[in-house]
Amino acid sequence: MCGIVGYAGLEQAAPILLDGLERLEYRGYDSAGIAVLSEGKGLQLRKTKGRLKVLSALVDGGKALEGRMGIGHTRWATHGEPNDVNSHPHLSQNGQIAVVHNGIIENYLEIKEFLVSKGVHFCSDTDTEVVAQLLEYFCLQNGGNIMAAVYTVLDRIEGAYALGILCKDLPDSFIAARKDAPLLLGYGENCKFIASDVTAIIKHTRDVSYMEDGEVAVVSAGEIKVYDALGQPVEKEHSFIDWDVSAAEKGGYAHFMFKEIMEQPEAVRKTVSPRLKDGRVCFEELSLSEDYIRGLKKIFIVACGSSYHVGVVAKYNMERLLRRPVDVMLASEFRYADPLVDQDTLVIVISQSGETLDTMAALREAKKLGARILSVVNVVGSSIARESDDVLYTWAGPEIAVATTKAYSTQLVLLDMLGLYFADIIGSVSKEEYARLAEELQALPTKMEKVLENTEEIKYLASRYFNHASVFYIGRNLDYALGLEGSLKLKEISYIHSEAYASGELKHGTISLIEDGTLVVALGTYTPLFDKALSNIIEVKARGADIVALTTESRRGDMEKTVENVLTVPDTHIILQPSLGIVPLQLFAYYVALQRGCDIDKPRNLAKSVTVE
Ligand code: M6R
Fold first, then answer.
1. Which atom of ligand 1 is nearest to the CA of 309?
2. pLDDT digits over 143-160, tens only?
3. N or C terminus of the chain: which is more exposed, having fewer CB within 10 Å?
4. Best substitution site from 349, 356, 376, 492 to test ligand 1's pocket, by max atoms within 8 Å of Cβ?
5. What is the DSSP string of 346-412?
6. CA-proximal residue: ligand 1, atom 9 (nearest)
7. Looking at the domain covering 3-242, what would its CATH class be?
8. Is 3-242's fold the same as 456-595's?
């Protein structure tokens, strides 16, 4: 939520900041702003409600602002409506200090009251403005020492923050600080950066380091000095970002989401291949001993949104493979649920961004309870990855569209592989089943490619049903779990009300909503329960529902006896079937949203990475 970028170098800062913000816009797009400092013109600030293109027009692509150092922000509004005044950067009363912020200052009201009592006048309704005002207050108290003021302010504020601070009295450098919100440092030749994520700066440098909680950085064109919470210098470890710049660009596609759907076979291939050698699943990066795995009493999976949906599939699959209890819980519920987790529990944390605040909080809670943490993460070096005992990376590459697709698919397959790996060690899977699963894992990317070659029928169905007000996704077992994700994809990008139900539950209430013309997406890819799924389809059809059914190629004939609109995916091992089933559902959501003229990559009210509670 919210994107921050900062630059100090030899070039004009504003165009670089605007370009960085464009790449961070998926993190929030309610408003945007930049502040630039130059010797001649001083501190210049422009900000506006709306998308980045509005800001860009306002500053003539950056030409209107002069200065070789600056900070920028793209906002997902939390405190204060999205308007010009509440946009970042926020200025202190005397106009000397500008601040951009990602996170939430929880005690801002108390600080605001204190400052108001001292005669400070506030312009905005945001929590962030207190940081700018408090900095000015302590700066004046400290005889103008901005660094001392920064430390005093960081002691005073509570909550989560990644901060960029530009100060008129510091003509050659700006300041950054972080706690519980991501912020990285970028080291180019004669140019240095801060950014919420690497996509903002990869054009300029691949040499980065990640700020830790409590650290403060002083960034100038020539160097970045980092200090810990006590003001002691810190030597930062550098990481090299090896992905291609084009991976974070649309490359001729109309939308990132479509590009990312199409990239799934390759992403899955990259995730599977290094861990499947001579038909054996191996996780060289795991430090869990075989004894630990054999002794496992319980697995607990925590995650949010689509990552949680991966967890729901994994619960079915892992319990089937391991015959041990696997719980799955929404991360936002976990931390307040007094969960039954202890040192005998393996907690698996799933997150694309590795920065989701609820997931991070669940991880910390689980750690406190003594559990061992294994995370499945896409963004290398992210907070969740760094705080876990073990991390398995999904090699999906940068995912820009707010609606996840390739990250979901890679998480799914990685969890299946993990289940198989554990099952082999525990001895709960037969040699034959292991071999068949390994073979199908290998074949999965090619089968996904096959699904992606046939999009015409999906496009046609989307054009036929895009005007429906409400949709139900129904299925049993793994198809229910698949429906959760299919339904979320549709609702988040097309704004159509959509629900996923376990088919067997319909009769317990929901079927009363089915009437003439209600659209039901009926999932029948879980072949062991195909006949039961078919009975449920017949029930909703009898009540007037329009049905779009999804099944496997082997069951197409059976489905067509009952349903006119049948989509199919190739057959695979039952455990892997959701990896194929999700692809037509993503495409259906995409084409429906396209027909409705929605902003597919940046759906309203959403942001890619949810770093507030
Ligand atoms: O980065 P994470 O995987 O932790 O994100 C979790 C959810 O916010 C995310 O999956 C969200 O539900 C997506 N918008 C779904 O497409």
1. 10
2. 889 999 999 999 999 999
3. C
4. 356
5. EEEEEESSS--HHHHHHHHHHHHTT-EEEEEESSTT-HHHHHSSEEEE-------SSS-SHHHHHHH
6. 305
7. alpha beta
8. no
CB-ligand 1 contact for 356 (6 Å cutoff): yes
3-class secondary-structure state, position 219: strand
Which residues are known to be catalytic? 2, 608
Closest ligand 1 atom number to CA of residue 379? 1
Measured in Å, residue 143 CA sits from the centre of ligand 1 at 46
**Helix ranges (DSSP H) in 118-222:** 129-141, 146-156
CA distance 185 to 495: 37
CATH topology of domain 456-595: Rossmann fold (3.40.50)
Q: Report which ligand 1 atom has the smallest distance to the Cα of 356.
A: 4
Give the position of tokens 């929901």.
Answer: 510
Peptide bond into 89 cis (omega under 30): yes
Cα of 545 from ligand 1 centre, angstroms: 31
pTM of the prediction? 0.86
Element (H, E) at 31: strand 31-38
Residue nearest (by alpha carbon) to ligand 1 atom 12: 305
Mutation to probe ligand 1, out of 26, 257, 260, 304 (largest number of atoms < 8 A from CB): 304
* Ligand 1 probe mutation, 27, 333, 352, most atoms within 8 A of CB: 352
Nearest C-alpha neighbor of 33 from the set 92, 82, 94, 95: 82
Contacts with 543 (C-beta within 8 Å, 6 or more apart), sequence order = 511, 514, 515, 518
399 lines ligand 1 (CB under 6 A): no
C-alpha of residue 409 to centroid of ligand 1, in Å: 13
Give just the sign of the alpha carbon dihedral 144, 146, 147, 148: positive
Q: In the structure encoding, which two tokens stand for residue 551, read together? A: 């099944």
Report the SS3 class of residue 227: strand
pLDDT, tens only, 287-336: 999 999 999 999 999 999 999 999 999 999 999 999 999 999 999 999 89
pLDDT one-digit tens code per residue, 395-451: 999 999 999 999 999 999 999 999 999 999 999 999 999 999 999 999 999 999 999
Residue 610's pLDDT is: 84
Fold of 248-452: Rossmann fold (3.40.50)
Q: Give 408 Cα–ligand 1 centroid separation in angstroms.
A: 9
Q: Are 8 and 173 in contact (CB under 8 A)?
A: yes
CB-ligand 1 contact for 307 (6 Å cutoff): yes
Q: Would the CB of 403 count as within 6 Å of ligand 1?
A: yes
In percent, the amount of the chain with pLDDT more than 90 equals: 88
CA distance readout (Å), 295 to 335, 344, 500: 25, 8, 36
pLDDT tens string 99-153: 999 999 999 999 999 999 999 999 999 999 999 999 999 999 988 899 999 999 9
CA 166 to ligand 1 centroid distance, Å: 32
pLDDT tens readout for residues 186-212: 999 999 999 998 989 999 999 999 999
